[in-house]
Structures are given as C-alpha cells and as structure tokens.
C-alpha cells in the first residue's frame, strides 16, 4: 500500500457511516483551513442522476480546446483515487495529493467526518492553491446536503437528467429528488437544465424561482440539441450550430453534449465555435460506452469480438445504453452477450427490461472487492424473470472465458455493464486504467 492509499484508509475510519449527508462537518474543517472554498476559480456546479460525468467531460474538453485552464472534481473513481481530482487538466500528482490529505488530517485532528467530506475538503484546498480559468465541480450525492454544496457564488449551476437513484438517502418521490438536486441553486447564479420530465422540470423551475437564480436555461425550451443528417444541431439564443456528432457514443450523449454547450455559452459567451467542435471530437470519459480494443481481458475473447464497457446502473441508464446498442446493431449486426454485476441498492429488473429482445444472454458476476454486490445467482434469476436467458459465473474471468470458448459466429458484441465499481475492476484487470 502506498502512502496516499494508507492515508485514505485512515480517513475511512473517521466516521462510522460511509454516507452521512450534511454540511456542518465540512464547513467546520474548511473554516479551520482558512476557507479555501472561498478562493476557487469560477465554478460550474453540476448535479443530476445521469450524465454528470459525461456533461462535465464535454465541458472540460471544449473549455480546454479554447485554451482555458480547467480543474475538475468528480466521483467515484474507477481505478485510482487520483481520478477524482484534475488540476489544470491532469490527475493530481501523488506528492500534491499526499500533502493536501495530510494537512486535512492534521487540522481535522480525529474529529468525525466522512471519507467523501474530508477528501472533498482536500480537493478544495488543492483547487485554491492552483490558478485556473474554470472549476467543474460534480455533486457526490443529491445536492442540497452534499459536501460540495458550500460554494457561495458559482459561475453557473447545472442539473443533468434526473431519475430514481439513491432512494435510501433522497427518497422515492421523483419531485422530492429533484428538489434535493436543486439545492445547489444559488441566488443570481445562472442555472442550466438538461431536458427533464414535466414534473421534474416544474419542481426545478419552482426551486429556481424561490432561490432567485440568475437566468434559467431549460433544455428543450431555451436550447435544443439533436441529430440531423449525421450531425449534431445545437440552437440557443446565441444562434444555431452545425457540429460533428460527439465522440462519446449513444443518443443520450447528444443531450449531455448540448447541456455542456449551453452551460459554457452562459459562462463564456465568447467561446469560439471551433473550440466546441474540437472538444466534441477530443472528449474522453472512461466506462461510458467505452470500447476496449486491447488488453488482458480482451485477449480472452474470440477473434474479432467487440468488447464494450459501461458503468451505468439505474433503469434510465439501462434505457440509454440499450438504445445505443440497438443503434450499433442496426449499423453492424452482431449477437449481443452481456456480463453484468450490480450493487444491492440498485433496481436490476428496471435495468434489464430494455435489453429484452436485444441481448442474446446475460452472464452475471460478482463485483471484485464489494460486499454490497447482488449475488450472481440471484441477479441471474432477475434477468431470467425479465425475459433474458441468464446464468451466473464465479468471476469476470470465468464469464469471459466461457464466451471465448463457445466459438461464437459471427464474432460477438460483448458488453460488461451494471456498475462503475465493476467497470473500474475491468479497466484495472485489463491493464487500461483511465489516464
């Protein structure tokens, strides 16, 4: 175990719960450190259920193409904790991370604080010490009581598509979940909304009015993003843009790209069109319809097989992923075999439903290192009840070898999905971690 990992392990033990929403502990520690969260670059604060990471990746790519220096805070990580903190476009170095963690640990002096809270404070400390033109700050869970929600004057707040998730913390009522996400809205700060269902949109609009946000820009009303003749068309009050399709696959990425463009055009009205176009082509976001073309796991598969990876884990993500796979099937037909692992806080039946008739079969697997994963046998039963042939495997390697030995023809399309934690294990085992 290296030094950073040892410190992070100690921080896990500072609070008996992994999740305990609230701002008191974060605010107290930040105050002892001299309030670094009040000395951050212009910040775009991003909440939502699906698409936060992709939308943030688009914003970073476009802003950097315009020559901006960009910090990013995101969670969870896939392989290494460093992925959560980008300083000026690069993952935080070991030295800088260790220094920040040790300073937070010293000042906190053993007081109860969750792992996410103290590491978020460390991120704020780092961001305050390194100049940048923009900080893209992703909410961890919810919004109103999330540790990131200590930012007083964001340059803008963004809400990506909202769906049911983390109901144990945010409730089961979709409008209530929307209000929790809208807790990031701030007086006079512009708010940008991805297209939402009517009831969610109304709840978000009501919250924006009560807070007194700056201009409210609503996807599907104030801006549009759609495909036409193999191009992405974006239109808002500043005009119409005819762009290449984004590098990230799936129709849902048209919305994420549009949300990113709408947000950046509010914060940087002079952002060149060429930067937006370049950013669309340069964007990279691992484990979101990511094709793995090489690596140790890829070598276990039949010749010419396609191996895809996606970390989406709720029913809305399942629908988006199934739609993307259906588009691939239409363009280049191949039998689809799925390998799926999920946490016991998720809705596997809702996730599997859109794959009926699309997936030839599903092999369920455990999630390495997780005690909260659904047992593969039980998960396979749910898949079968959803109308998809399924069986359980004891490991990811076993599942891949099982497919590799079947002499499948034509060469199959294999999708590993259902959990970001499983996706991280895949990238690590494949020898292709995020860079």
UniProtKB/TrEMBL annotation:
Mur ligase C-terminal domain span: 305-419
GO biological process: folic acid biosynthetic process; tetrahydrofolate biosynthetic process
Gene3D superfamilies hit by this protein: Mur ligase, C-terminal domain, Mur-like, catalytic domain
Any one GO CC term of the record: cytoplasm
Keywords: ATP-binding, Folate biosynthesis, Ligase, Magnesium, Metal-binding, Nucleotide-binding
UniProt KW Ligase keyword: yes
Highest taxon in the source lineage: Bacteria
Class in the EC hierarchy, top level: ligase
Entries under Pfam families matching the protein: Mur_ligase_C (PF02875), Mur_ligase_M (PF08245)
Pathway info: Cofactor biosynthesis; tetrahydrofolylpolyglutamate biosynthesis; Cofactor biosynthesis; tetrahydrofolate biosynthesis; 7,8-dihydrofolate from 2-amino-4-hydroxy-6-hydroxymethyl-7,8-dihydropteridine diphosphate and 4-aminobenzoate: step 2/2
GO molecular function: ATP binding; dihydrofolate synthase activity; metal ion binding; tetrahydrofolylpolyglutamate synthase activity
Presence of the UniProt keyword Nucleotide-binding in the record: yes
Residue intervals of the Mur ligase central domain: 46-263
Catalytic function, reaction form: 7,8-dihydropteroate + L-glutamate + ATP = 7,8-dihydrofolate + ADP + phosphate + H(+); (6S)-5,6,7,8-tetrahydrofolyl-(gamma-L-Glu)(n) + L-glutamate + ATP = (6S)-5,6,7,8-tetrahydrofolyl-(gamma-L-Glu)(n+1) + ADP + phosphate + H(+); (6R)-5,10-methylenetetrahydrofolyl-(gamma-L-Glu)(n) + L-glutamate + ATP = (6R)-5,10-methylenetetrahydrofolyl-(gamma-L-Glu)(n+1) + ADP + phosphate + H(+); 10-formyltetrahydrofolyl-(gamma-L-Glu)(n) + L-glutamate + ATP = 10-formyltetrahydrofolyl-(gamma-L-Glu)(n+1) + ADP + phosphate + H(+)
EC numbers: 6.3.2.12, 6.3.2.17
Cofactor(s) the protein needs: Mg(2+)
Main function: Functions in two distinct reactions of the de novo folate biosynthetic pathway. Catalyzes the addition of a glutamate residue to dihydropteroate (7,8-dihydropteroate or H2Pte) to form dihydrofolate (7,8-dihydrofolate monoglutamate or H2Pte-Glu). Also catalyzes successive additions of L-glutamate to tetrahydrofolate or 10-formyltetrahydrofolate or 5,10-methylenetetrahydrofolate, leading to folylpolyglutamate derivatives.
Family: Belongs to the folylpolyglutamate synthase family.
Protein name: Dihydrofolate synthase/folylpolyglutamate synthase
Species this chain originates from: Cohaesibacter celericrescens
């Amino acid at each position: 175990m290296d030094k950073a990992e040892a410190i992070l392990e100690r921080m896990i033990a500072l609070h008996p719960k992994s999740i305990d929403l609230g701002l008191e502990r974060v605010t107290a520690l930040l105050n002892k450190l001299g309030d670094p969260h009040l000395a951050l670059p212009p910040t775009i604060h991003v909440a939502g259920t699906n698409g936060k990471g992709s939308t943030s990746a688009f914003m970073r790519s476009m802003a950097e193409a315009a020559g901006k220096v960009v910090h990013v805070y995101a969670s969870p990580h896939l392989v290494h904790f460093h992925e959560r903190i980008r300083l000026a476009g690069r993952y935080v170095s070991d030295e800088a991370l260790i220094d920040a963690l040790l300073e937070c640990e010293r000042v906190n002096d053993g007081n109860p604080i969750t792992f996410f809270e103290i590491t978020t404070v460390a991120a704020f400390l780092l961001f305050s010490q390194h100049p940048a033109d923009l900080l893209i700050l992703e909410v961890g869970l919810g919004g109103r009581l999330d540790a990131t929600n200590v930012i007083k004057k964001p340059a803008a707040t963004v809400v990506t598509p909202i769906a049911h998730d983390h109901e144990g913390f945010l409730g089961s009522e979709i409008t209530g979940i929307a209000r929790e996400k809208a807790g990031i809205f701030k007086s006079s700060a512009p708010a940008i909304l991805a297209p939402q269902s009517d009831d969610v949109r109304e709840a978000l609009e009501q919250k924006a009015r009560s807070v007194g946000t700056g201009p409210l820009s609503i996807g599907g009303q104030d801006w549009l993003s759609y495909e036409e003749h193999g191009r992405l068309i974006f239109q808002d009050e500043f005009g119409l843009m005819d762009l290449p399709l984004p590098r990230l696959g799936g129709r849902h990425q048209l919305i994420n790209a549009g949300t990113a463009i709408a947000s950046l055009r509010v914060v940087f009205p002079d952002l060149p069109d060429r930067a937006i176009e370049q950013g669309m082509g340069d964007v990279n976001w691992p484990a979101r319809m990511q094709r793995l073309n090489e690596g140790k796991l890829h070598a276990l598969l039949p010749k010419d097989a396609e191996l895809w990876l996606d970390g989406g884990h709720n029913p809305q993500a399942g629908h988006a992923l199934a739609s993307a796979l259906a588009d691939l099937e239409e363009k280049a037909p191949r039998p689809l075999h799925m390998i799926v692992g999920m946490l016991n806080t998720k809705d596997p039946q809702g996730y599997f439903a859109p794959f009926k008739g699309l997936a030839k079969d599903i092999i369920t697997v455990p999630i390495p290192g997780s005690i909260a994963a659904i047992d593969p046998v039980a998960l396979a039963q749910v898949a079968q009840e959803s109308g998809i042939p399924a069986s359980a495997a004891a490991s990811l390697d076993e599942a891949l070898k099982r497919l590799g030995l079947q002499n499948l023809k034509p060469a199959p399309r294999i999708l590993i999905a259902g959990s970001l934690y499983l996706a991280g294990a895949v990238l690590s085992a494949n020898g292709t971690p995020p860079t």
